[in-house]
Structure formats: C-alpha cells, structure tokens
Write a structure and sequence with these properties.
The structure is a homodimer of 517-residue chains. With 517 residues, chain A is α+β, with helices and mostly antiparallel strands. Chain A has 17 helices and 21 strands. In chain A, the strands form five sheets. In chain A, strands 3, 5, 6, 17, 18, 19 and 20 form a seven-stranded antiparallel sheet that branches. In chain A, a hairpin with a 6-residue loop joins β19 and β20. The longest helix of chain A is centred in the first third of the chain and has 23 residues. At the A-B interface, α2, β2 and α9 of A face α2, β2 and α9 of B.
Chain lengths: 517, 517
Amino acid sequence: MAAAEAVHATYPPRLTAEQEQFLVSTIKDWTIQNGLTVRPPATFVSQDAVSKGVLGTNAPVTLFPSPFPRSSFEEARAVQKIYNKLYADITRDEKWLGEIIQELLDVDDFVSGLWKVHDAVKKEGYVQDLSLGLFRSDYMEHTPAGSENPSLKQVEFNTISSSFGGLSSRVAALHSELLSFPPGQPINYPSHPLLDGRVPPKNTAVETLSAGLAAAHSAYGPSKSSPSLPLCIIFVVQEGERNIFDQLALSSRLSNFHKIPVFRLNTTDILDLTSIPGSNSSRPLIYTPPHAPSTSFEATTVYLRGFYAPTDYTSERDWAARLQLERSAAIKCPTVLNQLSGCKKIQQVLADPNREDHLSRFLSPGDSDTADKLRRTFAPQYDLHENGRGRELALNVETAASHVLKPQREGGGNNIYKTAIPGFLRSIPEKDWKSWVLMELIQPPSEAKNVALRSDGAVISGNVVSELGIFGTILWSSDGRILHNEEGGWLMRTKAKESDEGGVAAGFSSLDSVILY
Amino acid sequence: MAAAEAVHATYPPRLTAEQEQFLVSTIKDWTIQNGLTVRPPATFVSQDAVSKGVLGTNAPVTLFPSPFPRSSFEEARAVQKIYNKLYADITRDEKWLGEIIQELLDVDDFVSGLWKVHDAVKKEGYVQDLSLGLFRSDYMEHTPAGSENPSLKQVEFNTISSSFGGLSSRVAALHSELLSFPPGQPINYPSHPLLDGRVPPKNTAVETLSAGLAAAHSAYGPSKSSPSLPLCIIFVVQEGERNIFDQLALSSRLSNFHKIPVFRLNTTDILDLTSIPGSNSSRPLIYTPPHAPSTSFEATTVYLRGFYAPTDYTSERDWAARLQLERSAAIKCPTVLNQLSGCKKIQQVLADPNREDHLSRFLSPGDSDTADKLRRTFAPQYDLHENGRGRELALNVETAASHVLKPQREGGGNNIYKTAIPGFLRSIPEKDWKSWVLMELIQPPSEAKNVALRSDGAVISGNVVSELGIFGTILWSSDGRILHNEEGGWLMRTKAKESDEGGVAAGFSSLDSVILY
C-alpha cells in the first residue's frame, strides 16, 4: 500500500453519534455567526422565502480537514508565481494565443464572442496597458498504483472569477477552532495521529486577493476625468448570486482595510449605470450609483465575478456591456485575452507530450529548471486531430478508460469520463471534436473519506475526491513589466466520489481545509 | 417646541426609493456576513426548514441610528458603576431584600419558587462567596410638555440574562460603516446635519461583558476537585434559542481572546450532564460533555441565559436543576438573590417618593451626591397598598392616564397602560394588587421616527419609542469586597409606537444605535 493510501486508511476517525451531533450543531452555529454562508437555494426553502433576500445558510463544509502531503502543498505554492507570470506572458502574446484560439472560433460561439470583443477594442486601440490577474491553480494528488510517493497534478488553471477565497479562509478558521478547543486540551475530535496538535496552515486568500485588487487600484493613478472624480473598484456580479458572501469578504477588506470604495454592479446594469464620455480619449469608466445620482465615480479596476460563462450572455446587450468594460480605461481583472488564456486548449497545448515545446516560448532561454517545475505538474493532455495520439487514445475503449474528455470551459458536469468517451465522440460530428481536450485521469487517493454538512442540514459521509487550489495575483503591463506578483491563500474542495462511475460528481462539492502530513 | 422635538422633527431624512433599496439590500447582506443574525421564526420559513437548524436571518434593525442627547448618554454611563454596586449591596442584604420579597410570596409562584431555592441553599450553607452580575440598566429620554431639556429616566434594571450586548455591538458597526462609506465621501444617507461626520460611539459591550465573566473565572481559583479538573464557564441556555448569535459573540470572545473553555448547556440537560460529588464538601460543579465523556470539566462560572422566566420552569425537575447550580461552588451570574433584586418591586421601593428613604441604606452615610444622581434617573413608582397614593392614582381614570401598571417581571406584553388601569384592577382580586407596581409614564420624544428592516424582509417606518440600555459588570464577595466593577457597552432598542394606544408595542422591536447630539 502506498504512503498516501496508508494515511487515508484510518482517516477520518469514526465519530460517535454524540460527537457527530456536537460537530454538526457547532458548525451550523459557527457558519452563521462568521459569514461562512451562502444564500439558500429554493429547494428546502420556499421560493417565496428566498425572494425576501434575508436568509443565509451554511456553505457546504466538511466536518474534518482533509490530509494532504506537505511536500505537494509546498510544491503547489512554490510554482504559483511562475504560473502567474506564465499566464500573464501568454496573455501578452496575442499572436500565439490568437493562433490557438482561431482553431476554436467556428466550433465555440462563446470563445468566438469573446474574441470579437478583443478584436473590436484592438481596432479602436486599447487605452489601458495594465492587466490584473486573480488566478487559482487547481491540483489533485496523483497516486497511481505502484507509485511510492504521491505527485501533484494540475487539474486546471483559472484566469477569471476564481472563487472561494473568501469562504475558504473561514473554513480554515473553523477547522482550526474546532481542532484547538478547548485551548490546550482539545476534545472535539476523536484522537487520531493526523489531528494530534495539528491545525490547517494559515489561509491568507482574502488578504492576498484584496491586495492584488488594491495594487491595481493604486497603479491606475489619478482620475482621468476633468474635473477629476473619486476613484473606486467595481465588482461585476451576477444577479441573484448565491455565493455573494465569498465576494463580500474581499470587498469588505478593500473598504475597511485598504479604504477603497467598492461597488457591486450586476452584469445587466452595466450599460445603465456606467458610461465612457465620448469626449475623453482616455475613456475613463464612469459609474453613477443609483442611490447617489449626484456623485459619480471613476472605476480604476473592474473585477469580474460574472461574465465568465456563456449563460452570462443572453443578448447582444450583454456583449455590448462586456465591450464597454473592455474598451474603458479601467484595469480589467481579467481582460478578454486573459480570460481566453484559461481555455482548456491552452493547457493542453502546453501539456501535450506529443507536440512541439510551447512552454519554453514563455520562459527565459535555458531555464530548464523552471520548465521542469511546471511540467512536473502537468497531466498528459491531447487534442483529437486526425491521426494524432489523442484521437487514438480516445477512440480505443481500453485506453479511453484512463482519460477524461473536457470541453473548453469549467469542468464538472460537462466532462465525459473513461469508457463513455468513444461512444460520446461517435455521437457528435467529427468537426466538433477539436473543441474537446483529452486528459489522462489524475488518480487521487482511492481511500480518501470525509463527512460533509450540506447547506440543507443533511450530513453525508463516504469516499471523496479533493482538489487543492492555490491563489495568486499578478499585475502586469503590456510591455512586460510586472508591477505585483504574489502567491497566497488556498482552497480545498472535496467532492463525493460516485462509486459506480468513478468520475467526480458535478452536483455536490464541499469547502474543506487541509492537514499537512 | 422643546429641543428634543426640534431634533426629531426633520429626522430621519426622507429616502428615495433607490436609497432605501440600497440601504435595505446592503443591510441584508451585511447582517448575514457579520453574524448580526437570529434563527428565523417558523412564520415566513416553514417549520420543516427551521428544524434543520441551518438558517439565519437578519436581526431586526433600524436603517438609521436614532438621535440621543449626549448629556443623557453620558449621565447613564456615569451612574452605571454606582448602580452595579447598589444592586450588589441589595443582593448582599438578605434581610432587607427578604422582607420585600416576603410580600410577594403568596401572590407570585415564580418569586416564591426562587426564594425556596435560596432558602434550601441557605440551610445547607453557601459554599461560594463570590457573585457575578452582568447588568443592563434601561432608560428612556423623558420630554414632558413644557420642559426645556430632556431628562434621563430609568425604565428597568436587569439583573439576569441581560441580552443584546453581542448583537448591539454589531449594529453600531453596521451603522458606522454605512455612515462612512465610501471613506472620506459618504453617500449612503441623504444629507442631514445630525449625520454629517457623525458615527455612533464605540460599543464595547462584548469586551465588557466577556471581561466580567473572565474576571469571575479567574477569581474562582484552582480546581476544587481531586484530582484537579480543567476549568470552564457554562452558558445555561434555553433549548431552541433564536437569539443564539447574541450569546455566541460572548462565548467566542471568551474562547478566542481569553482562552477560556465555554460550554453551552440547555436548562433541560443540567441534571444529566452536571453533578456535584457528594464526597466533596466544596461542591464543585462537574460538567461532562456528551461528545467527550472521558473528559470532565469543573465550572467556575455559570452564566444564565435561561431560567429567568416562569416559562423556563415546567416541572420540579427544572427547579431541582436550578438548585443544583445554586448550591454548587460555581460563581453564579446571577445568584437567585441577585435575580430577585431585579424585581420591579425593588425598583418601586427605591423610587417611591411617598415611602421612607431606602436608597440611603445602601449608600455611604452623607453621600447625598450619589443619592441625587440615582434619584434623578427614577420615575415615580408606587405600590397599591390600601389608602396609599399609588392606589389613589391608579383607580382614578384621570391620574391613571399618565401611568403604567407593571407586574414583577419583564415588561412589554404584560403591562397595563393608562386609562385601562382602573378597569383592569377591578377585574382581578384585590389581594393580587400587591404584585403590581404603578409607574408614572416616561414621555419619550413624540416626534421620533425611524425605518426598520424586520427579520422577514419587510421594511416599516413610522413613529417610534427608543430605550437606551447601559451594560455593567460587577464581581463581589458576600463580605462586601468588590473585585471588579466596570461599565461598558450599550444597547439602543427601538419599537414602533402604537398610535391608538400610546403604549409600546410588545411585538415589534428593532436593534438600533445612537447618534449623540
């Protein structure tokens, strides 16, 4: 049995009914007291009650922190600033990025729509040299049969709306408090070597992400309006966002600590509440709060927590709103190009072992050490071009069995797993195959288990799969200057494993923390 | 028009629909993010959803802080430590207290039940010399027609379960944030001279109340068990408490800042989970958490947030549980005698202008200055004894019109107002009259208005009546030594005024803060 399996074999320790009852009721109270919350869905609460907008419920959380190898955790942290810079450099390399994106334009309307926004602004000319990235690199522990030590494999790299920094920090605090109560003589968990004297590492996600936004705000410089206007940051959000408290953790920090005004703006309100004066060639983005119509603000930074998915664009008006943001002088987090750099296709091109070496293009010549560090985190990925290795692996049911087929965007419910891949591919037109990426499945510890409290109060336990995300922020200029590059804070997300399929359940996912071993 | 009326005539400033919408939605978010919450009632949420124990909703709060005269606020703070000591001294004077309580024994089962607990422990002998009081003295601004300056009048003095310190601190923080956003250029409220550059004073209720409990914990000394046990504080609470987050603000502060273990214990679980070893004449109160049955704790301090009302005692078993606490070595907050010192009858005896001077009994001889300070806060109060002034005022509909009739316990729904008093008295047996106290009505500013957000999301506005509570803590020994005497933190509670009755609505009450003028 490999080391990772040994760790998970006895973990988590079994709870008595009284222990479980105590942990569950304490977590139910702690989450509401400390804003580790989401707005409840209209499932166990009536739509009528939800519509009043006053209720909160606990975010889904695990009762136990999950064990994670310290070496892998440190490795993930150590490469984050390299990844930050890599994705900044990819974003700056419009030619290279464009060539890859071109392949997707005729099969992916969303990618195509985004590219058109970039094209339009490029024609007019960009007025803002700076870009801000709030990134999250997601990993799994890879423990293939027969291997002695687990390795760290990247699942995906998020360049837009990287979420859960706010709530994740609170889960670490929750587990730390539970593990250390009472002070000096903790009694909340059954005795277990992994829990003895250990607490999750400090989670600085809120501080780090907010500091990134504050750095952009500061780098924007003085108002470009005349007469000059007060400056602000705008959070672009989805209407009816249930995960609002994750976002508020960042805006509160910006307001209360950095003393920067933050306004929330629904994607659907952008064209009504913002404007770019036609007479000002600097194109400042002016925001006028409806509750204070006599005071206008100039947005230094636009932080997108909406507009990341096709469902955010229901009409041309939404695309016009995105264009308004993109052509403005506000620093975008992210720009359209930076969003596109997060396409699965980009990761595949970098990680495809059968293609030319694209990675080196973005690294200092001869810096094979950095290239190796990044490559160690890659799982093999392939496109499905004719006569290519990827197509061969995908269509053969035996080799498909160790792979996952992913579309360009966020994983979860859209992925096709294992032996279902050949049949799925044959069911869609071959011309659409190029919008899919084949990735070798990461093999997480098969014995990992945990217990989770859902938002509706249900407690479930069983085998789980966990993903570790590392947050990073980078502010760069189109000429390649890096003004700010930080790593800090993390997310552990744990999903119930569907035993029959072997895939990851799309529906259920809990916030977790880590115990390093 | 008196000064107070002038202040309230234009306050609060009128909100546009957009301003109200912004304030309401911001408060809905802020409250859940920051634990300014209660568990929702089973009115707008189904009993089924409530039973899962995961939902929170905003505590009812005002949109605006309420104006309050700075001189009255300072006066209330200045007398708090004097009041703390007065009620400690009353509690120590068992003979005097007992004589007054005797009058109530045959008409008030609850008072009688409490006295029996004291009697039983007295016979056995008390083993704990120290008592802890967490008090709240409640006041209204008194603005009778024709008076130039408002004065401060005490509504009641609470000696048990003085609540809302936890949530009240957060309301002050909420209003302060709303008033100062964005930094340097606030825009959330319409312009008004009372709000210009002002925020509520700092509210240290959580720090002050927790420090009182911590002082008792420390004064308890080492474990009285052998072998010695780890020490803890116990919060005795009601099952299904909706106001739990108010209490958790204190226990979190004790755990996280003072590093003192705190356990919550339902009144109904006391006899199952605590014990006093018969073999130990020091009578330590031993608590064994059901989730960690191998670890027992010794309670230094028992803080009652239950057992304050007759409804907390449904059987002899509940009285036995109260007796178990009272006879133990734990420092009680409060003792039975301290709870009884909060009877309305005590306040009436102190404040009755037609009775002998009882107040001086508890003050240093010749200290007329202190006596005057306290007396200035008294509203005239009377008992209803035969041929007395109180009976005369109560039975005459003309004089009754400026009075309120109060039972021994918490006000609100049980009070009889104004012209309803004579009829009410004639409807009950004359022998029961002695359980009632007649109090001259305090006349709060008649033009005071505010807007409140209820827990179900409804927004209501109109004329209001506000009460200011000042928190204080005192730890004393039966021999008169004062180990700790502090004042700190406050509560502003604002109720809708029922215009037809002129009385205070029992049903609806919001947490508020103050703007001092």
